[in-house]
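Box S2. Input/output pair 1.
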Amino acid sequence: MSHHSSNPDEDGRLHKAMQEMFGEFPDGKLNPDDAGQLPFLVGVENGHVVIQYPKPIAWLGMTPDEAIGMAEVLVKPGVQVDAKDLLVVLS
């Protein structure tokens, strides 16, 4: 079972990253609803791998290379429960 929350970005890293890339579409717009790049944090909390986004999202699209990169980022803390937080930018 997975968990979720709507708590905000506590240390502001996601907010800062979001401001830096607002309106960026490195691979063009996927569809009319595409809002552009989205940073996220991956870390470990109480033995669970946690993905934190800077705002609510309905969907996430990425290139095949980005999907592989995201999988690699998720596997690392899954294997090393004591991993440090990682800031990830899919572009």
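Box S3. Input/output pair 2.
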Amino acid sequence: MKAIPDISVVISMVDLAAFMLASGLLVLGFKSKKSNLLGTRIGYVLFAIGTLCATVHALLLGNSAVLLAAALAWGTVISWFVWQVELVGAFTAPVIAVILVSGIFFSAGGHGAAFTESQPAIKLHVATAILGQSFAILACGLSLLFLWLDRKLKTRQLGALPEKFPAISTLSRALSGTLWIGFIFITLSLLSGSLFALLGLIPAGTNMAPKVSWAILVWVWYLAILVLRGVLGYRPHKVARMSLVGFFLMAFSWFGLIFWAPWGSA
């Protein structure tokens, strides 16, 4: 008698397949015209299916890679409805697929996260960190779209733009919104981390200096972006470039969070 696959395995394969297929269709449809509009719509449907499956998978498994994928997927969906920036899915769908594949192999190798079994304070810290990282990734995608559109406008290559490409003012608003949301979650992550450090929840002998130093650097960088934009009136294309740098700082700082195990314990 053949063994029946675990439901989490089935859901994992469905959401991975959905995002991989959506990646291809949305990337191919990025520069498409009306003739390829059907493929782009199918890509959006697959993205929605993947988002729902990733959400269920995250609730069942609690793996931080899946949590990050689900958070990024929902952030993308929010950008569709709030700012009508559907094309950012061409960037986030491949990133989500890479996160899911990486999470599967690292979990299989014994480096997965047992997020559902963590203490509440640690859950709060990791959840806010994951949400901050997801909006940083989303801001990176919006920055790439903004800079690409800005270049096309300056070189007068409007004919190369895909159907229903958002206005540059719309991209600017979406970028500002995601930066603010990401900054709020990064701040909450630092506050929650500071809280359980004060409560003595960090095991003795744990070297948190590198992680904390980089986390503070990331927070300062995103604060600087918001101050330069909101107070000093930095132009959006400079903010977009700073957002790209901020994403790479965060990726370097929190890459281990994707395969999180409490405080790096063996």
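Caption for Box S3: Residues 7-264 form one domain. The chain has one domain: 7-264.
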